[in-house]
Amino acid sequence: MELRGQGLVGKELKDAGDRTSHEFLMHALARHRPGDVVLSEEGADDRARLVAERVWIVDPVDGTREYSEPGRTDWAVHVALWEKGDLVAGAVSRPAAGVVHSTDNPLAGDSVDAGRIRLAVSRSRPPEFVSRLAEILHAELVPMGSAGVKAMSVVTGESDAYVHAGGQYEWDSAAPVAVARAAGLHTSRLDGSPLVYNQPNPWLPDLIICRPPVLAAIREGLDKL
Ligand SMILES: Nc1ncnc2c1ncn2[C@@H]1O[C@H](COP(=O)(O)O)[C@@H](OP(=O)(O)O)[C@H]1O
Ligand SMILES: [Mg+2]
Fold first, then answer.
1. Which of 70, 102, 134 is the last residue of a domain?
2. What is the CA(172)–ligand 1 centre distance, in A?
3. What's the confidence (pLDDT) of residue 41?
4. Which GO terms describe its molecular function (predicted)?
């Protein structure tokens, strides 16, 4: 937040934000949880994570593009804890909005049943299939930056589902998925299989996060693509 007001713009601001947040998190985790391994978007992949019992999966700035655009609040800091096979805790912080969604306190809101399904989608690179899915479902697209912010929009009831495919890494979804699960939402891969973390290759290209009542409609829509 401090860096954003210091005159850096564009790539310089993105890189400085990523690096500063990464260093902050690495120091904090080394100090408070020295025995744990960290998988960060901005760090070298420490292969010790593949035999570790506890691994922190972090994205220091998710929605880096939005972070670099003055006044935007749709970017987030993701911190998730994976322990012995699954996510056990996580938080998605939105510093510019002044909110932290965590597995302890997801800040879940009631969703008004608007009739039309609202799909959260990337504002800068909406996957083509999501537009087709929206047509099939007569759904409304709600564009915003950051995987974490999109997932939290389902948690708060601003949208009904976040459906993504075509590319992403474990750090983009780990903390959002941990919080979404704590809020009682459905989380899975596009084919319905579970999202599995701390894999040798952290590429995790697709997901569905949705309110349970819309899952059947989304599945039917996906089948028709
Ligand atoms: N096709 C793709 N391949 C790789 N990463 C992708 C991707 N689409 C989205 N992402 C990542 O998902 C996050 C949210 O993207 P978007 O705001 O467009 O929905 C971004 O994380 P970062 O900002 O941490 O790089 C972005 O890099
Ligand atoms: Mg990210």
1. 102
2. 7
3. 98
4. 3'(2'),5'-bisphosphate nucleotidase activity; metal ion binding
Query: Are 66 and 27 spatial neighbours (Cβ–Cβ below 8 Å)?
Result: no
Instruction: Answer whether 25's CB lies under 8 Å from 60's CB.
Output: yes
Residue 107 falls inside a structural domain:
no
Interface ipTM > 0.90: yes
Cβ neighbors of 32 (< 8 A, separation 6 or more) are: none
- Model confidence pLDDT, tens digit, residues 173-207: 999 999 999 999 999 999 999 999 999 999 999 99
Ligand having the closest approach to the CA of 206? 1
- The answer on 168 and 132 residing in a single domain is yes
Return the CATH number at 136.
Answer: 3.40.190.80
Rounded to whole angstroms, how far apart are CA atoms 151 and 134?
17
Q: Is residue 112 part of a domain?
A: no
Whether the CB of 59 sits within 6 Å of ligand 1 = yes
> Rounded to the nearest whole angstrom, what is the distance from the C-alpha of residue 130 to the centroid of ligand 1?
15
User: Whose alpha carbon is nearest atom 21 of ligand 1?
Assistant: 62
Token pair of 220 as six digits: 């039917």
One domain for residues 44 and 122: no
Task: Indicate whether 86 and 167 sit together in one domain.
Answer: no
* Nearest partner of 101 among 56, 153, 55, 172, judged by Cα: 153
Q: Is 160 assigned a ligand-binding role in the annotation?
A: no
Tell which residue, 218, 217, 207, has the closest CA to residue 178: 207
Furthest C-alpha separation in the chain = 50
Does the residue 201 lie in any domain? Answer: yes
**Which of 38, 42, 5, 45 lies closest to 20 in space, CA to CA?**
42
Which residues span the domain enclosing 35?
Answer: 3-102
